[in-house]
Amino acid sequence: MLTGTQVAFIGGDARQLEVIQRLTELDATVTLIGFDNLKQTFNGASHAELTEDAFADLDAVLLPVVGTDDEGRVEGVFTSKELRLTDACLARLPKRAKVYAGLAKPYLRNLCQQHGIALIELLERDDVAIYNSIPTAEGALLLAIQNTDITIHGSNTLVLGFGRTGMTMARTLQGLGARVLVGVRKEEHYARAYEMGFQPFHTSELQQHVGDADIVFNTVPTPILTARVIAAMPPRAVIIDLASKPGGTDFRFAERRGVKALLAPGLPGIVAPKTAGRIIAAVVSQLIMEDTAKRGNEA
Q: Which of 34, 48, 106, 174 is least surrounded by Cβ atoms within 10 Å, i.e. has the fewest?
């Protein structure tokens, strides 16, 4: 249980509601900042404004999956007010506290480092990323179906990157009967893709493998689908870029070439916010419980 643990949520979307529900069930004392337009109520949760005093006795601060922008602004779909995490806010946060976000930009990393506050980037954890790859793959399939006039079965598909999302994406496509080519950089990924029945190739040779592509799913967050590569693709091809913004695609050239290219980061929160929220809730609640138990043992 989290009785006596002080947690503040700052902004976020529908995924945060699942985390709030879980922590209130565990008897944490929850403060909601940036939820003034939320109709749903939670037992054990109260609302507050984003002020420096709100940080004084906290054990944990939970930010949205996107953390903050480059100037400290926090996105919140349940408020029309601007939310901004400032240096003064972190200065009031006890050193025992931790800040949780999906991913952190340099602004948030630097702010936490300056004040000696531990920052937990949830999407950097293997467990969260692997669980999240499931709704990501489902959402990518939805986009593919909506933006093509062919079936996934029998289509020529490329999956670029064979990490946690790429592997799930490739296996899902294979299960639907697609011909799946997998672009990799590492030799161990080449071997694993081959063992799993895919057709691997090195991304350095990407231009040679896109000539007959129907759909390209990219998970690589660096420029990989360049103008040169896109020029080698048939105009019918569709690119679904799952990498974090700005993606790995030259979208300007794709539009000029007549190739449909969609940037689609954050699909779990769009297509399955309840499932995505439960994934985060399970991990965050466990981490906070471990911290609470550790502090109790040290007392």
A: 106
| Nearest-5° Cα angle at 47, 43 to 52 | 135
CA distances from 191 to 80, 156, 182, 185, 188 (A): 50, 21, 11, 11, 5
Residues in Cβ contact with 8 at an 8 Å cutoff, skipping those fewer than 6 apart: 30, 31, 32, 33, 48, 54, 55, 58, 60, 61, 62
Q: Which two tokens stand for residue 33?
A: 């900042």
Q: Which of 268, 270, 273, 240 is nearest to 254 (CA)?
A: 240
Q: What is the mean pLDDT of the chain?
A: 94
Question: What count of other Cβ atoms lies within 10 Å of the Cβ of residue 87?
Answer: 12
Q: Tell me the two tokens of residue 150.
A: 């062919």
The pLDDT tens digits for 243-283 are: 988 899 999 999 999 999 999 988 998 899 999 999 999 99
Q: Tell me, what's the pLDDT at 244?
A: 85
Rounded Cα distance, 179 and 210, in Å: 13
Concatenating the DSSP letter of every residue in 138-203 gives: HHHHHHHHHT-SS-STT-EEEEE--SHHHHHHHHHHHHTT-EEEEEESSHHHHHHHHHTT-EEEEG
CA distance 179 to 200: 11
Phi, psi for 159 (deg, rounded to 5): -115, 120
C-beta pairs of 73-76 under 8 Å, 24+ apart in sequence: 74/10, 74/11, 74/34, 75/11, 75/12, 75/13, 76/10, 76/11, 76/12, 76/34, 76/35
Tokens 């019918």 -> residue: 236
Side-chain-side CA neighbours of 83 within 13 Å: the count stands at: 24
Number of H helices and E strands in the chain, helices first, is 10, 14
